[in-house]
Specification:
By secondary structure, the protein is an all-alpha fold. It is 82% helix and 0% strand. It folds into two domains: 41 residues, no CATH class; 216 residues, MetI-like fold. The two termini are 20 Å apart.
Length: 262
């Protein structure tokens, strides 16, 4: 590990410790800032005790398993649909005119607004939660795919055509490699939004999952457990987005060679 890397990780560690220290002071002294009060906010020690209790219980595995399966199913469907639709819309005028307008109307609708309709549309709560996760991840992937394809240098396309490349070869050899960095960014953002949407759905219609655990803790007034649920969501979202970026870096090695960071 070189000096630059060591200093960067040291700064990150110090930043986390400062946040923990500030949290401890505000909660221990029950600071009241007027608009924001920390009178009932549990401190780091209380949250650590709650996390240890959850880790020792049999509920943790079921909560994590339920949320991970829902995210994985919805996200994979969104990745397939978002990349496919993005390629069609960016490369075909008919697709842009026929598909993009309804998608743009649906895009601003928040995940929580989909919950009542999803419950009515699907025969089980599991399918409705997967659908909400799917909608949350779809649009970042779709828009980044469109942007990446449109940003491909037209001169590269013209050169490939002059060398006899057909439509499939053009897509495989020029368009997809050129758009790959933007697609990877969309996949990473989509992973984060899929967790956000899933937790919202689980709070309302779930029986197991991290979102349900967080909401149940609030209704039972187990305040340290609320923070445990929030931190689990944050860690899972961060780790899964980082995994997507790392996998994306493996399929776009030219980005690292050019000095880009995934």
């Amino acid at each position: 590990m070189n000096t630059t890397t060591l200093s960067r990780w040291s700064l990150r560690l110090v930043s986390l410790l400062v946040c923990l220290g500030l949290w401890q002071v505000l909660s221990a002294r029950h600071v009241n800032l007027g608009l924001v009060t920390f009178a009932n906010v549990p401190g780091p020690r209380d949250v650590l005790d709650a996390a240890w209790s959850l880790a020792q219980s049999s509920k943790l595995g079921r909560h994590l398993g339920s949320s991970l399966l829902r995210v994985l199913a919805g996200y994979l469907l969104a990745a397939f649909a978002g990349i496919l639709l993005g390629l069609l819309i960016a490369r075909g005028r008919w697709a842009r005119d026929s598909l993009l307008p309804p998608l743009e109307v649906l895009r601003p609708i928040p995940a929580v607004a989909w919950i009542p309709l999803a419950i009515l549309m699907f025969p089980s709560s599991e399918l409705s939660m997967i659908f909400i996760t799917f909608t949350g991840a779809l649009f970042p992937i779709l828009l980044n795919t469109i942007h990446g394809v449109e940003a491909v240098d037209p001169r590269l396309l013209a050169s490939a055509r002059s060398l006899g490349a057909g439509r499939l070869a053009l897509l495989r050899e020029v368009v997809l490699p050129g758009a790959a960095p933007s697609i990877v960014t969309g996949l990473a953002i989509g992973m984060g939004t899929s967790w956000f949407c899933l937790v919202t759905a689980e709070m309302i219609s779930g029986q197991w999952g991290i979102g349900y655990y967080t909401w149940e803790s609030y209704t039972l007034q187990n305040y340290p457990d609320i923070v445990v649920g929030m931190l689990l969501i944050g860690v899972l979202g961060m780790a899964s987005s980082l995994l997507v970026r790392q996998l994306g870096a493996l399929v776009t090695p030219w980005q690292r060679q050019a000095g880009g960071k995934p």
